[in-house]
Amino acid sequence: MGLCRCICSFCALLLAIPAFIICGVCIPQVELAWIRFHETYAISVPPLRLLLIILGQVPRIWEHGPLGVGPVWNPRIIYAVDGYKSGILPFPNPANFTSGYMLARVSFDKVRAVHHNPKLKRDSKRFIGILTDSVPPGYFSEGVLPTLLQMNTDDPLRYAHRDLLSAAMPSISANPDFVPEFKPPPGVTAQNLIRDISWHLIMPLPHVVTNVVQDVFAFTFYRHAFGVELSTEELALMKEWLGIPTKLLVGFQSESGGRRCREIAKVFEEKVAAGEIGQNLIQEAEQRGMNGMDRVRKVVYEFNFAGLGGDGPGGGLATMKMLRQIQRAPEKMVPLFKKNPEAFIMEVIRTQGGGGAGVGPWVVQKTRNHTLGTGKVLTEYAGNYANTIALHANFDPSVFGGPDRDQEYAMKFSPGRENADRMLNFVAELREIRKCPNVTGCEAAPRFCLGTFILPRIMKQIGLFYIEGLENAATFTSRETREEM
């Protein structure tokens, strides 16, 4: 009995310690002190520091979903240690999480310098942390690699591919001639979406992006980008396909998995190729001496994994963030959205992100020392990987803090704020992107997201659909109340 009691007490202590930490960091000043502690004393032991970061960020799950435990979403991780002055955050090393760091740029100036670098170098063999030459055949269709994410900014092949899309896919331009009206996927109503979001605010696990939001966004995205509609069965296949990179990142890969991936990819490649936009893409590619079907495969892969994102970063997550923002306080947020949908959407993206964290990994060209806000000096060597965290740059008080450069104001949700068009979520500054004649890119914005213009259009349609559902439900409830009286 004595041994049993001792073991039980030890286990209870093991559970109590993280519970105490998690509860403690809900207090703002305790959270800042906790961040300063692990950034000062655990920096030399990367696995321990990562564990302490995760423990301290658990309460943020209710703000950002499961991804909230990472060092990407909470700007307090930066300003707690005066990180905007150094502009550097030690980030887990994708090559080896147990040793060393990949140094992330987090201040506005440093992130912008990377994003606007016309000679930025990427690793053509690594796709979002996956070594593409180490996976079995089928995971990447013929013609897909290297994707735009893997190409150097000044690579002529990258320019040629973007220029092709600019010519053949007016749907992704700033001002397309035709934008389809909103239509929900088969069997989905606004009330389904409202219930989905309401429950996720209470229990934001296990999904980053709920199934209903994934379906609504994917269905709308394919109608806008490719002019085709996905069936219920195809939407289910899409979720299966978009879940594969996560499996690859943790080492789950096989010959059969590669074959299955190829089977799914073929469904969407053929769907897009049969549509009018797909036919235009094939024809335009072949006129330029390119393999038309290879270009379809490449575009479908890039748009799905960098655009949709599935149950992870992508346009679906940005939409999820917008709907959660509305549902948190409908009486306040609905009028704000209706007043200026574009400003509301851009402020959601600025403050809560949606796509990838930033640009990464990219390849460092010069060895240098970086002094952190804690005084710790880290050396970054030429050839190392580095990345950027655009969301942290979007909270830099030097740009978003107003006249007083106030950190709290920079973190405030304020649609229509000054400098909103300087956010870096779309890689280049939005105001610079708008100077380019098309989505090929230009000197002002040599590298930017192909979803810069199409994503807000889709989010606006889904947001209005959601709000209409809220208003209809409120009207129905009000009428029922009057009848009972």
Shape: globular
Give the terminus-to-terminus CA distance. Answer: 64 Å
Strand tally is: 8
Percentage beta strand: 5-15%
Strand order of the largest sheet: 1-2-8-5
How would a crystallographer describe the biggest sheet? 4 strands, mixed
* Rg value: 23 Å
The chain-level structural class is: mainly alpha
**Helix count, DSSP H or I runs of 4 or more residues:** 23
The level of helicity is 40-55%
Mean pLDDT value: 92
Low-confidence stretches: 476-485
Summary?
The chain has 485 residues and is mainly α.
What features would you highlight for this structure?
two-stranded antiparallel sheet, mainly alpha, 23 helices, 485 residues, 4-stranded mixed sheet
Write the layout of secondary structure elements.
Layout: H1 2-24, H2 28-41, H3 46-57, H4 61-64, H5 76-79, H6 83-86, E1 88-92, E2 101-105, H7 108-115, E3 126-127, E4 130-131, H8 156-168, H9 190-202, H10 211-225, H11 232-242, H12 244-249, H13 255-274, H14 276-287, H15 292-308, H16 315-328, H17 330-339, H18 341-352, E5 362-363, E6 368-371, E7 377-380, E8 385-388, H19 390-393, H20 397-400, H21 407-411, H22 430-433, H23 454-484
Parallel strand pairs: 2-8
Antiparallel strand pairs: 1-2, 3-4, 5-8, 6-7
